[in-house]
Amino acid sequence: MSDINNIVLGIDIGGTKTSFGFVDRKGNIIDANTIETKANESAEKFVSRLYQKIEEIRICLPSTSSLCGIGIGAPNANYYRGTIEKPVNLNWGDIVDFVALMQKFYQVPISITNDANAAAIGEMLFGDARGMKHFMIITLGTGVGSGIVVDGHLLCGASGVAGELGHTVVDPEGRQCRCGKRGCLEAYVSSNGVVRTVLKLLAERCESSPLREMTHHEITSKKVFELAQKGDKIALEAFDQTARILGMKLADAVAHTSPEAIFLTGGLAMAGDVLLKPTKQYMDYFLFNAYKNTVKLLPSGIETGKGAILGAAALILNELAL
Amino acid sequence: MSDINNIVLGIDIGGTKTSFGFVDRKGNIIDANTIETKANESAEKFVSRLYQKIEEIRICLPSTSSLCGIGIGAPNANYYRGTIEKPVNLNWGDIVDFVALMQKFYQVPISITNDANAAAIGEMLFGDARGMKHFMIITLGTGVGSGIVVDGHLLCGASGVAGELGHTVVDPEGRQCRCGKRGCLEAYVSSNGVVRTVLKLLAERCESSPLREMTHHEITSKKVFELAQKGDKIALEAFDQTARILGMKLADAVAHTSPEAIFLTGGLAMAGDVLLKPTKQYMDYFLFNAYKNTVKLLPSGIETGKGAILGAAALILNELAL
């Protein structure tokens, strides 16, 4: 049963859409909605529009419900400063003090962090990381995000933005990354990375495949996954190469923080065992002896589609210790 | 002035020698000595011999001095279990409960961790990491060790042995590492790694060099350093390639825990700016934008030769909060 006397608002700001929902301390989403994130809109206009939409569902909540805080997951969010800094897909300028903008409308505690960090707290409060002191979550979507929990606390580091495994180096002479660097993990193991690997394989291999009838932009990681399930050689090899690189870099990650478990989430993680099983095998292969059998690789324990809002809500629930 | 009423014993167990010393809470080494670590001796015999030697200097301490605890730095030490596990260079079997062995002789709090972790705590208490909440130390010796401090605490992780950056992957098809894996960082950026890089360069390049008159085992990282200072092209290139790989993997490390500073210590770090300057440049080059200008690369602030004992002593001083 949900306790609607103390609720929080979880907001997940994505490049194309922003989801938000009221959540109780047990992780029940009481009501939720979505608005478009308009890339060319100013941050001020965006917040004002978001406020309108939040209030539309807020007035339907029981009168006894009390909003205790707001948690926000957003790209390039700095936990310490409450800012969103140089977001790649938004026209918000260099640094937006997003928490201050929100506080014009809501005089409650507000926290912000990047979406992967929020997902980590969500997994800790409502998913399969409950009771774990050391774990890590990797979000495999358009890009690659990561949230690291150490001794039960989100690792933010000196900069406030620790845990950007998507921009560790796979190959210093490798693929261009949208961040400007070369050979970043994100350029290989994101949904976009899988498509790039397919293109590379189409060049290198001779096997026939329906993928040869698609343009670059027609190929999606979902289509590659579906073809892999049907036994398409190119698609299977693309997932194997993706898994090898991911497994290798996860073994590196273990050599840093030694988590009890690594959770995979995001669009590409929906490939399930097609990705998870070989990734686990490669990770174990690359693991330093001292870490063998100390770390599990698991799918997120949060219901598909709920992770973003629950993660953002968990961020503030965790801080308020509700 | 030293406070000898409350002292601790710091012990550093190395592959060939073991150093120990009595240390006060301000980091003054009151007295110290060294014994040989005999590779073929049992752990029990080693501890018994160590005890004799410790007592030899202990009886010379003022009668008012009180031993409050013992800190130990050792290869493959597990902080949580108090054990030394599968040490590569010692004939001690799979798992030695080293803390229990020591406690037969000393009924005081005893803690053990690997030497790089001890160095991290030493740097935090007595070196240039004083006041830092997030930092990392890299020991560049025969091998590569690392100690990571997060939120002011040593990161041990779920396994108890977090922070083994020496065994992250530089090249999955690369050099054999003594750990059994291939292409580990340690195979490239240790003192031994530099020598291997020289051998590779002697094969690839045509420049004349005194290094061509030395056998593999005659070449040492110290000699390579001395030749680099004299402008030897092979030696300079060896340090540049070492710095590039180290800089790249340090940038990866920053993307995990986002430290305020990374300290370099150990034999190879004595090359000073010959290694430090290019490593900093490469690290900055490989850093993800969000971390630019957030992390310093520094030499250890602990006096050369004192780090091992002070690190081990700091481990227990930190726990006792003396």
CATH topology of the largest domain in chain A: Nucleotidyltransferase, domain 5
Strand order of the largest sheet of chain A: 3-2-1-4-8
Q: Helical stretch count of chain A?
A: 9
**CATH class of the largest domain in chain A, anyone?**
Alpha Beta
User: How does the helix and strand content of chain A classify structurally?
Assistant: alpha/beta
Interface with most residues? A-B, 47 and 47 residues
The share of residues in helices of chain A is: 25-40%
Q: Major sheet of chain A: size, sense and barrel closure?
A: 5 strands, mixed
- Run of helices and strands of chain A: EEEHEEEEHEHEEEHHHHEHEH
Task: Characterize the structure shown.
The structure is a homodimer of 322-residue chains. Chain A is an alpha/beta fold and 322 residues long. The first copy, chain A, has 2 domains: 6-114 and 305-320, ATPase, nucleotide binding domain (Nucleotidyltransferase, domain 5), CATH 3.30.420.40; 128-299, Nucleotidyltransferase, domain 5, CATH 3.30.420. In chain A, 35% of the residues lie in helices and 21% in strands. Chain A has helices at 43-58, 98-103, 115-126, 186-189, 191-204, 221-229, 233-257, 273-286, 307-320; strands at residues 6-13, 17-24, 29-36, 66-73, 77-78, 83-85, 95-96, 110-113, 135-140, 144-150, 153-154, 261-265, 296-299. Chain A has a 5-stranded mixed beta sheet, sandwiched between helices. A 5-stranded mixed beta sheet of chain A has the order 11-10-9-12-13, with helices on both faces. Chain A has a 3-stranded antiparallel beta sheet with strand order 5-6-7. In chain A, strand 10 (144-150) and strand 11 (153-154) form a beta hairpin. The longest helix of chain A has 25 residues, at 233-257. Chain A is globular, with a radius of gyration of 20 Å. The two termini of chain A are 16 Å apart. At the A-B interface, helix 7 of A face helix 7 of B.
